[in-house]
Amino acid sequence: MIKNGIPVYLISWCKNFLDDHYSSFILPTLTKTRIRKLQDLQNNAIKIIHDKDFKESTVSLKEISGLPHIVSRYQILNKKYFDSAIINSNPLIEELMGKYNINILIKEKMMKIVYNSLKIIDEWLAIPSNYHR
Length: 133
Hints:
By secondary structure, the chain is mainly alpha-helical. It has one domain. It is 69% helix and 0% strand. The longest helix has 22 residues, at 104-125. It is elongated.
């Protein structure tokens, strides 16, 4: 139980560390090098938790842990944040929508623009799925 419980606890901690909604907004400002460093941090934590070889690839670590790539995780977080902000009438998002005269009918269009921007960022980064250090 303890042996199985520790990795679950540490993976949960790793997810919580990376799941800060506000930190996901920094993704467009990060350089490729910094994103790779974040990915390396996640990979190293997974290697330690699961007692894996240092040369283990990102793809196999992703399969072992169930954690997505850093860029994918931040994109998911941004989507969840905007969805939650709209549903919960976040004053900052409402003000932004009011400033740009965004109504209910074009809310979906705004969300598509946000998602497409995230796809462009992902393509710009072009981090291969088999990237490992």
